[in-house]
Amino acid sequence: MSKPSGVYDRLTDKSQYTGMYANHNEQAADHTNAQVQGKGSGHAKNFSEAPVQKFGMQVDKPVTFTCWNGLDKHAVGQRVVLQNIRTMDQLVTRCCQKCTVSPQPTYLHSPTGKPIKSLDGIEDGSDVIIIQSGAKYKKESLPAALRQKLGL
Q1: Cα–Cα distance measured from residue 87 to residue 97, given in angstroms and rounded to the nearest whole number
Q2: Torsion angle of alpha carbons 110, 113, 114, 117, nearest 10°?
Q3: SS (H, E, C) the chain
Q4: Contact predicate 86/94, CB 8 Å
């Protein structure tokens, strides 16, 4: 091989590369993954075969449950999402707004009448009853749609 004469030839002569650029072109090609196109592209051949890359903050899906007005036999369940709720008081307020219950109670109930006093007591896909302050849980007062759903 003849010695490069011009400045451009010397700059592009791969035999003169050292350090991190010495194997740059060989590293750019992903030879281990058959679903990636040829040399140095890094692009998938087909979008359905592309490797999944997640960016940003990875968070879990928020808990979603159905809230029922425990004193209205004709009530319809309201879907509530536990997103941006940090205290039980915030959750009870949101359930009161969704189910139009007033005055606001201090806690919620499970369909069996057990009080739910913390956010940990709420499970994804569960049913929760809200009963206005001063009233008591009565199984016969549960909404008809909830009783049918639970088989009571």
Answers
A1: 16
A2: 60
A3: CCCCCCHHHHHCCHHHCCHHHCCHHHHHCCCCCCCECCCCCCCECCHHHCCCCCCCCCCCCCCEEEEEECCCCCCCCEEEECCCCCCHHHHHHHHHHHHCCCCCCCCEECCCCCEECCHHHCCCCCEEEECCCCCCCCHHHCCHHHHHHHCC
A4: no
d(CA 112, CA 75) in angstroms, rounded, equals 17
Q: What pTM did the predictor assign? A: 0.60
Going from the C-alpha of 50 to that of each of 54, 56, 76, the distances in angstroms are 12, 19, 44
**Which whole-number Å values give the CA distances from 9 to 20, 21, 86, in the listed order?**
20, 17, 65
Tens-digit pLDDT profile for residues 139-151: 888 999 999 998 8
> Please, is 47 exposed, middle or buried when counting C-beta atoms within 10 Å of its C-beta (0-12, 13-18, 19+)?
exposed
Q: State pLDDT tens for residues 101-138.
A: 999 999 999 999 999 999 999 999 999 999 999 999 98
Report the distance separating Cα 50 and Cα 29, nearest Å: 16
